[in-house]
Amino acid sequence: MTYALASLSLPLWRMIAIRHQFSPTSGEGARLYGGRWNRKGCSALYLAADAVTAVAEYYQGLPKPGTLVPYQLDAGRIADLTDAAAGPCDRRVAEALAANWKAVALLEDKTPPNWVLTEELIAAGAEGALVPSVQNPGGRNLVLWQWHEKGQQGDGAALTVLDPDAALRPPR
């Protein structure tokens, strides 16, 4: 199945570990360890369409301190894998969400369906995908595979960190 790619402009949220608060647009952790929508070695930035979903995704049942960061996204090629109720748009996406991707990848040494779908979307030119939240039913996440900070050189979606007080800049 082919998924349409469309422009998307919206506010987003991400809860990040305090030790990483000075690099709020980095996808390095996902690149190093892999994630639901990216295999190890593929950079990805996981964001949420609302603050509640961002917090739920960060905690995943394990309370820990973090920094909630607001963003503004301006993208040209995003695949929407959600339906009107923020659920999976089709059976294939539902199966990808239901798959225990960590067990498939790490224990079975196979490619989880999530990664197969991701690789197809990237090959089709997607900068990212809007996906249902596993941690907050009814919530939506946005995973980016190609992005840059707005106002800087780069390919992919333009992402602005909304930080008017410069609180996320490293101290001098």
Sequence-ordered SSE layout with sheet pairings:
Elements: E1 5-16, H1 28-33, E2 45-48, H2 51-59, E3 67-80, H3 91-98, H4 101-107, H5 113-123, E4 128-132, E5 140-144, E6 147-149, E7 157-161
Parallel strand pairs: 3-4, 6-7
Antiparallel strand pairs: 1-3, 2-5, 3-7, 4-5
Helix pairs in contact: 3-5
CATH class annotation: Alpha Beta
Mean pLDDT metric: 95
CATH architectural group: Alpha-Beta Complex
Largest sheet: 7 strands, mixed
Globular, elongated, flat, extended or rod-shaped: what is the shape?
globular
Straight-line distance between termini: 50 Å
The number of helical segments is: 5
Give the tally of β-strands: 7
Q: In terms of quaternary structure, what is this?
A: single chain
Bin the strand percentage.
Answer: 25-35%
Q: In which range does the helix fraction lie? A: 10-25%
Overall structural class, as computed from helix and strand content, comes to: alpha/beta
Task: Provide the domain count.
Answer: 1
